[in-house]
Amino acid sequence: MSQLSPRRNIPFGADRFLALFEGVEGGFAIGAGILAGLSLTNVDRKTLIAIAAISVIINGFNSAAVKYSSEHYMDEIDGIENEKPFSDYFIPALIQFLSYFAISFISLIPLLILNSVPYAIFYSCAITLIILLAAGTWRAYILGMPRWRDGLEIAFLGACIIAAGFTSGWIIHIILKA
């Protein structure tokens, strides 16, 4: 049985670091997954970009709202009356939304600069997986955990999200002939 490493001094504090990382992880994977799924539909490039951007914003806001409410509800369940709801609930949720928002749009860059949608989707997914690998490795370094294992785990989960987006786009394409 492995032991956890001793408590570390985590940048920004544990809640904010976790919010930042959740935004990075979710933003990249979901942004690329949405692009992969939408790429199989018969929409033009501008519509694809618009739908992906709107989806990213909505998903980011939803993710932040869930973070806010779940932290708040967990404290209520534990019988804790939080005297600093703004800094303990709102700020981490805002950090998660902003990181999610900013990171997700990185996955749109290949679509903005390349004319070929298939190549843009490929590069978007590849960049996403490389950055997720780096982010997971960095998180593991900060937390004193095995770097490659955590980096590969985050990249694998991102690949699964992208595959889910691609698969759902393929199924919709088959069923709706879209």
Uncertain residue segments? none
Proportion of strand residues: under 5%
Order of helices and strands: HHHHHH
The average pLDDT value, as a whole number, equals 81
Structural features, described:
The protein is mostly helical. It has one domain (14-173). It is 80% helix and 0% strand. It is built from six helices and no strands. It has helices spanning 14-38, 45-77, 85-106, 109-113, 117-143, 147-176. Helix 1 packs parallel to helix 3 (85-106), helix 1 packs antiparallel against helix 5 (117-143) and helix 2 runs antiparallel to helix 3 (85-106). The mean pLDDT is 81.
Which helices and strands appear, and what pairs or packs with what?
Elements: H1 14-38, H2 45-77, H3 85-106, H4 109-113, H5 117-143, H6 147-176
Keyword list:
178 residues; mainly alpha; globular
In short:
The chain is mostly helical and 178 residues long.
